[in-house]
Design brief:
Order of helices and strands: HHH
Strand content: under 5%
Structural class: mainly alpha
Shape: elongated
Number of domains: 1
């Protein structure tokens, strides 16, 4: 997440750093966003 948001790297650049496909980096990013959204929703309803 920090590579994308703090370092302003695109998914292709991140994929090269971690030796993954761009599609896999996209999947990981999507899952992280989903998890954060769920935790935020849980926190707001508590």
């Amino acid at each position: 997440m920090s590579f994308y948001y703090e370092h302003e790297m695109n998914l292709k650049e991140i994929a090269m750093v971690f030796e993954l496909t761009e599609a896999r980096v996209s999947q990981i990013h999507k899952k992280a966003i989903s998890t954060l959204n769920q935790k935020l929703a849980d926190w707001q309803s508590a």
